[in-house]
Design goal:
CATH class of the domain at 64-135: Alpha Beta
Shape: elongated
Strand content: 5-15%
Strand order of the largest sheet: 3-2-1-4-5
Number of strands: 5
Oligomer: single chain
Structural class: alpha/beta
Radius of gyration: 26 Å
Distance between the termini: 97 Å
Number of helices: 3
Largest sheet: 5 strands, mixed
Order of helices and strands: HEEEHEHE
Amino acid sequence: MRFATRNNSFRSAVVDMTPLIDIVFQLLIFFLVTGQAAQQARTEMALPKEPGQEVRTNEQAGVVLNVLADGSIVVNEHVVSLDRIGELVAEAAAKTEGGVTKLRPLVRADREARTDLINDVLERLSQAGIIAVRVATEGGAK
């Protein structure tokens, strides 16, 4: 009996790159969008010069309140009134595991901001049920 001879030539494997390219583009879009969102929380201002806490934490602030020198309060690129701070805290608490007791808002006050306005912001946060507030400073003072 005679068997047919097989052609044992090298066969190249075809690799489909389409899924890999899709994943790379999705990651690129994800990092661009999250980078823009993080940048929006950072309003340019001159922070007070205090040594502050040297240890950096990875806690999410939930709400970042920027008190500017002209007396305006900016949250996520939007100017808000003192009366709206309670609503913002309630919205952030709904998204935070543990609710309002686990929320640690970050207050960024300009060096030239009025202290009575900063005190009013802190009072409104307290009235909304916030237990602890973090205050951003610029390091370098001793």
